[in-house]
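Run log, item B.
One chain of 275 residues. Sequence copied directly from the ordering sheet:
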Amino acid sequence: MAAKIDRRLINRHLRTRNVLVLTLVFFTAVIGFIGVNNVIDLSRDLTASYVSTTGQVIEEETRQVREGSRRNRHWVDRRFVTIEYSLEGKIGSDSVRSDDLQVGESLPIWVETRDGDVRTEAPAGPDFWQWFWAVTMTLLTLLIVWWLVAAVRTSVRLLAFSPENREPDFVFALQGITQVPGAKKPTLKLSGVMESNSIEKRIGERAEFTLRTSNAPQAQTYPPRFTGYYVNPGAASVTVVLHAVELDAWFAADLTYPAELEAIAQGKAKPEAGA
């Protein structure tokens, strides 16, 4: 039976994480849909086969089509012509957009054998942008799916968290509390040093814990030390559970190490050799 602890603050953190999970689900669906369509279009062009023949323009018409950027989509009139052709004894036709072709004009065309689509120029296969968007959207979808799986896994582990039969993974010595500037909702940052840690290289290292103010213990003063637990027993994690023994408060927070962030920033800013 799981140890009885006050989970109210942990559950608040879980509700906050639910927003993240739902956001990732939405982006996974949208970007995944776009990515699948890009891959389908690319595959279609890669596997398409065409037969060259002669077609004749038999009629023209004006249609309204939507053009412009995403923010400036608008309807415009565009001219289309119907091209008729004979292929293997069968008569077919297709409409193509053209401002130049005239009714009665004959011209060489390329007919796709799969669905009879007509092209007035020799097919050149997929272009650079088809490859770019198919690959980019596929990789982006996989990245967001990875984030989603990681977020769901962390939420499940937080939901099942229990300190029963577990020793704390670390002891954190609090040195300062600040408000995170620019955060959409009031957010606290607890700064200090790892006095002990199940990961030896973290002992004595500066550490910071970030959490919503509403998800933190409500007290005038915080104790000088917190014990902490990784959500995955025996393995480091970004999201951890902290226990303020003097307050008998259990709450979740996100762990970062400033030294690592500084090293990354300096690495990006460092000029290349010979520059």
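Observations after the first pass:
- Residues 8-47 form the longest helix (40 residues).
- The two ends are 62 Å apart (CA to CA).
Flagged for discussion on Thursday.
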